Amino acid sequence: MGLLHQRHILVAISGGIAAYKGAELVRLLKKQGAVVRVILSRGAKEFITPLTLQALSGEPTHSELLDETAEAGMGHIELARWADLVVIAPGTADVIARLAQGRADDLLTTVALATPAPVAVAPAMNQQMWANEATQDNLRQLVGRGIQIIGPDAGEQACGDVGPGRLLEPDAIASALAENFESRLLEGKHVVITAGPTVEAIDPVRYLSNHSSGKMGYALARACADAGARVTLITGPVTLTPPNRVDRVPVTSAIEMHDAAMRCASNADIFIGAAAVADYRPESSAPEKLKKTAGENRVISLVQNPDIVAAVAALAQRPALVIGFAAETTELIAHAREKRHRKGLDYIVANDVSDPETTFGSDQNAVHLISEHEAHYLPLATKQVIAERIISLVAHHLGSTSPTSG
Ligand code: PMT
User: Fold this and answer.
1) Contact 219, 193 (CB under 8 A)
2) What percent of the chain has pLDDT over 90?
3) CA gap 104, 113 in Å, rounded
4) One domain, residues 147 and 203
5) Which of 25, 56, 233, 275 is found 20 to 30 A from 149 (Cα to Cα)?
6) Is the pLDDT score of 404 beyond 50?
7) How confident is the model over 40-82, as pLDDT tens digits?
8) Is 159 a catalytic residue?
9) Is 400 inside any structural domain?
């Protein structure tokens, strides 16, 4: 499984002779396991048909900013949020100029402005246009805003000129895109993550649990592995495929999750409690299926489960960073701050679970990352992008952090 596997890549093709190479890029990204959607500018459609891109990507293509059918399905803001990465290939001189100006007068430029994901441009144009100071100024602006410029290549051009401005070959563009998902931020570090729900047995066939899908915790595991960490993922019962290069420790109940966390966390550099751990479990679990007694209510006595993340934070050999989540439906920030303090955590990720877009099971999330002295809002994006942001915001504290005093 490569770095692009399951990544949501939005390929925006603008109108130049190199547009046909955009089709090859889509094919290569799909081959590497990416989920690809395509934006075709009006100009691009003069060079390549939507049908070709639809066949290669397996998804409908997108062209119009205001399109009733698209807005009902996946409109421009949804597309912008769906993407883990946006690549504009080829990026003509005109598109580069319009991106530099921050224009939002077609679908491509609007999505580039609206996306929280990284944006890359693979320029392609005549060598004289490339060399023009106006183009170079525009490129400097894009680089200054963190936009990745991939290429161009130099050589013989379609117009007969020779020089820089050829679109880089699609395999080189795909490799450069993959690098976005690899960092060495956590090289040599050991990260332990809890994910998913816990399941507390009432009897052999009934249980108490919650709606956690594990997606947030698994996204964190992948982000840490991609950042070079050794990752132990202690996971409640979920249906997700674990990311590559991750040691999975399957558990069922909160007690099992607690025991696994205690075994693994004392050698770890980072502990992340993303699991939705049941606060209570039935006092005893019946060995046989409980029988219904006509006309009688049943009372199940519940006892408290251990607080796993708090126990890790209290270890004598505590990980340098202990991070929890706070799933809240009211007073998000105040409750999250109180939980961080009470549980002795370095960071807490405040998660508004009253919003169906960011709640259990969703592919997206929007969170606040809060420490004693910092607060960062991470706006709505895929859980993978949120996970990567969390990791890049906390990683630099490693080595310089001391356990929180609470
Ligand atoms: O799994 P998904 O469908 O992707 O959904 C993601 C999520 C909503 C589950 C996740 O983002 C999230 O918010 N996880 C924490 C859910 C939760 O249990 O929150 P809490 O506020 O009850 O707990 C606070 C913290 O204490 C959490 O880090 C939790 O893991 C930890 N905890 C809670 C109880 C307990 N007995 N032991 C714990 O370690």
Assistant:
1) no
2) 82
3) 7
4) no
5) 56
6) no
7) 999 999 999 999 999 999 999 999 887 666 655 668 888 999 9
8) yes
9) no
Domain coverage including residue 264? 190-395
Rounded Cα distance between 129 and 136, Å, is 9
Residue 399 or 117, more confident: 117
Least confident window among 91-95, 107-111, 286-290, 292-296: 292-296
Whether residues 175 and 196 fall in one domain: no
Instruction: Determine which one of 159, 205, 290, 375 is catalytic.
Output: 159
What does the block give as tokens for 380?
A: 């709505």
Domain end among 151, 181, 211: 181
Last residue of a domain, one of 141, 156, 181: 181
- Counting the structural domains of the chain, the total is 2
- The number of residues in the chain equals 406
Q: ∠9-13-16 over CA atoms, to 5°?
A: 155
Across 219-246, average pLDDT = 95
For residues 217 and 192, the answer to whether their CB atoms sit within 8 Å is no
C-beta of 223 in contact with ligand 1 (< 6 A): no
Structure-block tokens of residue 190? 């050991």
